[in-house]
Amino acid sequence: MKLFDNLQTKKIPKGTILLSKGDSCRSVYKVIKGCLKSYVIDKSGKEHILHFASEDWIMTDMDSFMNNKPSNIFIDAIEDSEVAFLTSSNYNDISQLDHGDLLEQNKKLVNNLITTNKRLINLLSATAEERYMDFIETYPTLIQRLPLKLIASYLGMTPEYLSDVRRKLAQK
Amino acid sequence: MKLFDNLQTKKIPKGTILLSKGDSCRSVYKVIKGCLKSYVIDKSGKEHILHFASEDWIMTDMDSFMNNKPSNIFIDAIEDSEVAFLTSSNYNDISQLDHGDLLEQNKKLVNNLITTNKRLINLLSATAEERYMDFIETYPTLIQRLPLKLIASYLGMTPEYLSDVRRKLAQK
DNA sequence: GTGATTTCTTAAGATACCTTAATTTTTATC
DNA sequence: GATAAAAATTAAGGTATCTTAAGAAATCAC
Fold it and tell me: Chain B: nearest CA to A92, how far in angstroms?
């Protein structure tokens, strides 16, 4: 049994909120078409994007999903999307996964960790300009597809400042 | 077979460099005693701490270890330490892990991801003061044990600024 | 226990990035 | 295709955090 095969799918119009802070996250979404974002809202009301998920990517709040806690994050569709989803109940079938499937799961988790760690390194050690250039290299398709203000949020800067960064880069 | 049982251990004096940028990381360390740090050095020569690992924590460069790439990070002992270590060759025995072991591995990876994601949220959305207070809550033992300048680096600020933050907190 | 090293603090000036607000450009709607 | 809405840019002034440098406090080495 493969975790994401033969799942139900549903269409999600742009702007739909799939998970709100305080909710318990009962699904793991796999994006078939479109794009989702996860984000937090800080004390002063500002939104900070944690992850994007476009085609074939997975999106969930792991902490909430695995540990049955209220979530601290939001998940929205930023394009008209279609998602396959795993619910808590069919996730419990994980114990029925065979050895090869578990190894595959393991590998995906490791890759996810590697990616998240790179993001961390980037936030800690790179300037706004470097982070933007790195994003362009790493996600060339997303940059064409998403509004810059969402990318700015993902990169940890304001849209206005990203605009400055882009202008300075263009002048070079 | 449990991954970290019955492994060799070795003593590592404070200051020892276990992994340097450019090296291929051939070990996963489990700290028996003492403390390690992993860090990057940015373009201007500044050090940014990625992780600490004290007793029972695991330390490695996953990207380098799993994908046999040259590493971008350093790993040093910041106290006289003792570590158990898994090498690439005995890691390949992972295919001999039984179902329960793999599930356990999976769970550890998930927990690691959850922790790293919290760190990310923190860096994106919290002020220096909030990050410091969060660190005290999350790692009360480390704060007593490690020099503040290392904690400042981990929190993404300079030691001088952390000192300011602490003074302002003390005045309240 | 004394000198040497490392850590921590303080303070002044600098800078990366933010805020607000207005304008322009692009995209969506009917 | 005109109008409305959303996104992107620009600019001025502000703030959080950094840099440099120096001194005080704590820790280490013998």
Answer: 12
